[in-house]
Design a protein that fits this description.
2 domains, TF_FadR/GntR_C, mainly alpha, three-stranded antiparallel sheet, 233 residues, transcription regulation, Four Helix Bundle (Hemerythrin (Met), subunit A), 11 helices, 3 strands, GntR family transcriptional regulator
């Protein structure tokens, strides 16, 4: 085997390991296991994954490019901690993207897809009667994924999902409130009704209202965060 082939093979293996590390860290960030502001030390990560620092650095570089972490000079990388103002802006965009997904879904959803959404909603009703917040959050995520899929627009689904992932830790935090879970059920029922009736305008409006932070929802959201959060990124 030539030196060039050996070199290429080594780069491929490093890239593959870096991708694996990136996927695990992404999952930790999206699930809230790595909370906003958490530090990511290269040495600690290399020990955790039993690798050299090279694939760790590569994984961190990609996470930074995706806007999930910040890489700082001579300091450990840090999971991005967004300011309240920035989060509100992102929720506004998220509401429009999800509203468009719902609009298209109302035109294109199949009977099977609609039945699947109703089944997920039934699970949410049952979970809302318990303290299984993580399970509620996961089924709620699948409900929204079902609407992305029913829009039959893969690019829109990808962009919506990417933004949802960036603010996932904060959406998860809001779900901790029992009142928010109850409101979610009512708002989902509005969306489902519009989807079943093929009311694309109503579906878009219902979904925007469901996702956006307005009125009391905004006040409740802001109450979850420290007073100095406005100084975050």
């Amino acid at each position: 085997m030539t030196d060039e082939v050996l070199s290429n093979e080594g780069e491929r293996l490093v890239g593959s390991r870096a991708e694996q590390i990136q996927a695990i860290l992404e999952s930790d960030i999206f699930s809230g296991k790595l909370a906003p502001g958490a530090r990511l030390d290269e040495v600690d990560l290399a020990t955790r994954f039993n690798v050299s620092r090279t694939p760790v650095r590569e994984a961190l570089r990609h996470l930074a490019s995706a806007g999930l972490i910040q890489i700082r000079n001579r300091q450990p990388a840090q999971v991005v901690q967004l300011s309240a103002h920035r989060l509100i802006e992102m929720f506004q965009v998220m509401a429009e993207l999800e509203g468009l997904c719902a609009r298209l879904a109302a035109r294109r959803i199949t009977a099977q897809e609609l039945e699947g959404l109703r089944a997920l909603h039934t699970q949410l009703i049952e979970l809302a009667r318990t303290d299984k917040v993580e399970a509620f959050y996961e089924i709620n995520r699948l409900f929204h994924e079902g609407i992305y899929a029913a829009s039959q627009n893969e690019f829109l689904a990808e962009q919506t999902r990417a933004l949802r992932n960036r603010i996932g830790a904060y959406r998860r935090l809001v779900t901790q409130r029992p009142s928010r879970r109850r409101d979610t059920l009512r708002e989902h029922e509005d969306v489902l009704r519009c989807l079943a009736e093929g009311d694309d305008g109503g579906a878009a409006e219902a979904m925007r209202g469901h996702v956006n932070l307005l009125g009391e929802k905004l006040l409740d959201f802001l109450a979850l965060f420290p007073k100095d959060m406005g100084r975050a990124a």
